[in-house]
Amino acid sequence: MADVPVRTDYPYDVEVVEHVWVPLADGTRLAAKLWLPAGAGPMPAVFCYLPYRKNDGVAAGDDQEMRYTAGHGYAGVRIDIRGTGDSDGIIEDEYSEQEQLDGVEAIAWIAAQPWCNGAVGMTGYSWGGFSSLQLAARQPPALKAVMSFYSSDDRYADDVHYRGGCLLGMEMLHWAVCMLAFNALPPDPRFVGDEWRERWLDRLERTPPFIEAWLAHQRRDEYWKHGSICEDYAAVSCPVYAVGGWTDGYTNTVLRLLEHLSVPRKGLIGPWGHNDPLRGVPGPPIGILQEQVRWWDRWLKGIDNGIDREPMLTAWLQDWVEPQQLLEHRPGRWVAEEVWPSPDVEHLELTLGAGTLDEAQDRSDSRSTRPRQIAGSQLCGLESGAWCADGRSPDLPPDQGGEDALSLCWTSEPLVEPRSILGLPRAVLGLAADRPQALVSVRLCDVAPDGTSLLVTRGLLNLTHRDDRESPRPLVPGERYTVTVWLDAVGHRFPAGHRARLAVSPTYWPLAWPSPEPVTLTLFGGQLVLPVRRDQPADAATALPEPEEPPPYPVRTLEPGIGERWVEHDLASGRATLHFEWDLGGRVLLEESGIELEQLSTNRYSIVDGDPLSALVEHELVNGVRRGDDWHARCVASGSMTSTATHFHVTTALEAYDRGTRAWERTWTFAMPRDNV
Fold this sequence. Notes:
By secondary structure, the chain is an alpha+beta fold.
């Protein structure tokens, strides 16, 4: 990725306050870091609320965003959630009631500070994006606008736990192990004093692994409705700017928010993975910092800069590219929609024929009802890539020809002219299963004339959730059902001469945890519904700011991250293992604070074809902080997950080291009944 131009001429110099305490009503203190416009009077504030450690874990990214924001006349405030980083207390789960109540108090505290004029905006990536939406729904009086990146309005539908009612085998335990390692690190002695070790040991004793709660709720119940603003969109009363990336896992939220919110709103979807659009890959990068300042200028300072009169949605319409696991730039172009849903998008129905996708509307054609069967291969999905790719690791899906060979496919004739889609495709399938519990995986691919198959988008459905997510019901084996499988939102342009392909399978390991028994699906045809977008004359003029950033936060790489992915086949046992080493940064030195950070990840997903109960997930994450010889903490979190026909079995473990000596360790083991999963 090309270097981003550095800008130094800001309206305000920036004063950084490394640590202040935010007092809460119950006596708990939250740890905050401030970026203040030097010499300015009271200014609006921009608030970010995360568990990822303000002074080491994500210090470089925080400084980039907050320094730029403060340089344009906003107080930047970054707060560690209760029980994380340098804050007091214990974190017991993600997005808890306590977390949100603390956030409301924090906003009131920010608004009352002498450097704040009483107006607060809220922003953040991933967890911080979730928090921004959740606190907006609580309507704290001082919160005037939100800019939410890579987040969800529905915690059950669009997060690392479940998708379409299917348990995410790739993500659920992995994320629980990651959070266990993050939460286990100690507070910094610079800010909490000599009691840091006592507080650390208390944190280790009382902070639970999150996965047991997640597995205890396998359907969309009150647990998941909490923190899901889709339960009441009208509760959000301040303007919202939602940002997503097609390579990321959270793009559906942007379109839902634009459709259902009634406040001033704006959406942006680029080609990026779960990373910063300023340096994000796949590119192109954009000047997201300028875009943020424009949003805050309009809604926190009342400057009429016209951003609220611009198109509601700006999206990168992706072109064909040769499939590859690492991609620096995704060809395409920016397009804009004045409103969403857009009158420029029409829904085209393609009929599933005898292996064909036909535009003819005559569904009485016998070819569309001739049944086709597939016995699921547990190896289908090994080349799926990641659900929430970061773009820095080799986590993009390769050529899908192998996956297509393990699926039932319907393929169109070569397109006479290019066809663009923008929105959420869906597949309406007539099907039957030979088991009471089954899932269906649906992929849409762009097939080049030479047969290369590029994954465009995909969707999952646990067939016991065919009617709703709250009351799953087993299938009657052999009974025919009509189900709708929603595929993830996408913007893609099929070139002339290419073909569209729909691929269907009852397995998709390790993205979806397999059904308890091998499943054979019978397909009776159906339709693929594509959101086809008409080209607009104004598309050629659609553009976003060019990247720029403040002087970079000084970080020196001591040991690079790994970033590898490969599949190993044991011919003797028949076990196939996907090895996935995420590039989490390796070992780096934060030169201003003298803190060394260490993050290494090892992940294995294995299964034996024909035996869904052989599925095994194993993770290990090493997370360490060090400043000289006096403060050196290293945590090793690990976990494994298997299942029987009736239960999930999970073991997680944590070891904590103080200057190389083990200071604490524990292992948690539990079994959880399968609930139609």
